[in-house]
Design brief:
This protein is α/β, with parallel strands linked by helices and about 325 residues long. It has a domain at about 25-215 and about 225-245: TIM Barrel. Helix content is about 40%, strand content about 15%. An eight-stranded parallel β-barrel has the order 1-4-5-8-9-10-11-12, surrounded by nine helices. β10 (about 245-250), α8 (about 255-265) and β11 form a beta-alpha-beta unit.
Length: about 325
């Protein structure tokens, strides 16, 4: 019999021992903080369903970005709330767009943060879908050139990484081709390769004002029942030129994160999405759970599943809690 020769509790007896043998070490260096850019000056409005998260004008984004940098978080991802919307999301291509202006402002402030930009149409179209509409349906191929031009405008503004989140087939290849044609071959692509059609996106749609005006996104986002399909999506995006891949959401899809991690030797990200954040915040406000303990446990679990990079609204709090 192994007992009493083997006593696993020996290595759990003190914090020093537990720390010494800890298999997964969570740090702020793998976190990315999402931010929402809106028009105007000195605008900072809290999102009602996401306590602590704000819609902000570019000048306010810069100030919070300074805080993010001071906490040791390496980067942010920007989502835009445009001044105007139309059927094709034309404002997303403008050099004066909200994301473009915020990116330029961060660069002008000499911040060392990585700037990742969301590439999608849902925030910019008046119908709220991630692609253009033709004959009552989201048209895949007609959307690709718009996404590619949007990514190009972000690169020109100073983005380090562009992150297509639309789930149109072929969009990574279209973006890579246009970036390379315009001498932005060093701009990396973080592809939302396995983005599921999820009920956990509700608060984000309030924050980004991107709720579809008809139908839903199940014809282009992945079916939550499918895991093997995620490997196909990741493989295709890597073939088209993606440098990193993302699984979204994180918590209900830890098995998918693990499958992707085991199958591909590339950086793997996971998005700890708005609904996951809102649930923790609501329960903590009710006193039903210990927010710090639960958040760090969630992030540890996502990393343990195989994520190298975690996009999370908890990033600032987690960075503070993780400081020695």
């Amino acid at each position: 019999m192994s007992f009493p020769t083997h006593r696993p509790r020996r290595l759990r007896r003190s914090e020093a021992l537990r720390d010494l043998v800890r298999e997964t070490r969570l740090t702020a260096s793998g976190l990315i903080y999402p931010m929402f850019v809106c028009p105007g000056i000195k605008v900072r409005q809290e999102v009602s369903s996401m306590p602590g998260i704000h819609q902000q004008s570019a000048d306010q984004i810069v100030e919070e970005a300074r805080e993010v940098e001071s906490l040791g978080i390496p980067g942010i991802i920007l989502f835009g709330l445009p001044e105007s919307k139309d059927p094709r999301g034309a404002s997303s291509l403008s050099a004066q767009g909200v994301v473009q202006r915020a990116t330029e402002a961060i660069r002008k402030a000499k911040l060392k943060l990585l700037v990742i930009t969301d590439v999608c149409l849902c925030e910019y179209t008046d119908h709220g879908h991630c692609g253009v509409i033709e004959n009552g349906e989201v048209a895949n191929d007609a959307t690709l050139s718009i996404l590619a031009q949007q990514a190009l405008s972000h690169a020109r503004a100073g983005a380090d990484v562009v992150a297509p989140s639309d789930m149109m087939d072929g969009r990574v290849g279209a973006i890579r081709e246009v970036l390379d044609e315009h001498k932005f071959e060093n701009i990396a692509i973080l592809s939302y390769a396995a983005k599921y059609s999820s009920g956990f996106y509700g608060p984000f749609r309030e924050a980004a004002q991107s709720t579809p005006q008809f139908g839903d996104r199940r014809s282009y986002q992945m079916d939550p029942a499918n895991a093997r399909e995620a490997l196909k999506e990741v493989e295709l995006d890597l073939e088209e030129g993606a440098d990193m891949v993302l699984v979204k959401p994180a918590m209900p899809y830890l098995d998918v994160i693990r499958r992707v991690r085991d199958a591909f030797d590339v950086p793997v990200g996971a998005y700890n999405v708005s609904g996951e954040y809102a649930m923790v915040k609501a329960a903590a406000q009710k006193g039903w759970l210990d927010e710090k303990r639960v958040v760090l446990e969630i992030l540890m679990g996502i990393q343990r599943a195989g994520a190298d990079i975690i996009l999370t609204y908890h990033a600032k709090d987690a960075a503070r809690w993780l400081k020695p």
